Amino acid sequence: MSLYTLLLFVHLTGAVVWLGGAVMAQLYALRALRSGDARRMAALTADMDWIGTRFLIPASLGVLLAGIGMVWESSAYGFGDDWIVIALVLFAGTFLAGAGFFGPESGRISKLLAEHGAEAPHVQARIRRILVLSRIDLVVLFLILFDMAVKPSFSDGWTISGALAVAAVAAAALTVRPARRRDAPAAVAAD
Questions:
Q1: Domains held by the chain: number
Q2: Binning pLDDT at 50, 70 and 90, where does residue 184 land?
Q3: Rounded distance, CA 142 to CA 76, Å?
Q4: How much is the pTM?
Q5: 3 state SS for 34-87
């Protein structure tokens, strides 16, 4: 087995853990939000913080480091390749969102939970906000996956524009909450 092959395995494994973990977290978040149970949402927020710190962040860094190693080892790819530049920019965006917002906000929510309890309306609002905004981060992860699979160049304007348009629609669909009908029940029971 070559070093490149080993790095590719690490890169793909990290991507599967990172993206799969983010998808599963969103599915659990959806169930918790629909339950209307404040304690369940608070527990989910704490679990997501724990999983993110111990698994998703290391997986994402493994993806980055293995990817850099692959480019370094490869004679076919270089750091100037458009799709690699796109991937690095998207990675930087999601990494900075995690370090600059999601991580600190999780800490703030933990403090608010300790001070005010899970049922406090302002605590619930912050939990809902972080769960909804993390869906945008998930869309960025899928953009990275698309970039890795398609390997577009900047001259592929339609491919890049199309991917960004689909991502924008997906982000809007995942974050905009539809208006509740007046005759609808206050909370939808979780399955």
A1: 1
A2: very low
A3: 24
A4: 0.84
A5: HHCCHHHHHHHHHHHHHHHHHHHHHHHHHHHHHHHHHHHHCCCCCCCCHHHHHH
Q: Is residue 180 in a domain?
A: no
Tokens 């599963």, located at residue = 24
**Which structural domain, as residue segments, surrounds residue 117?**
3-175
Distance CA 119, CA 123 (A): 7
Buried b (16+ CB within 10 A) or exposed e, 21-37: bbeebbebbeebbebeb
Q: Calculate Rg over the CA atoms of the chain.
A: 19
Crossing angle (nearest 10°) for helices 3-35 and 121-150: 150
The verdict on residue 83 lying in a domain is yes
Six-digit token pair at 72?
């370094």
Digit-coded pLDDT (tens) for 116-175: 988 888 988 998 898 888 999 999 999 999 999 999 999 998 999 999 999 999 988 888
Say how far apart CA 141 and CA 130 lie, in whole Å.
Answer: 17
Given this model, what pLDDT does residue 167 score? Answer: 92
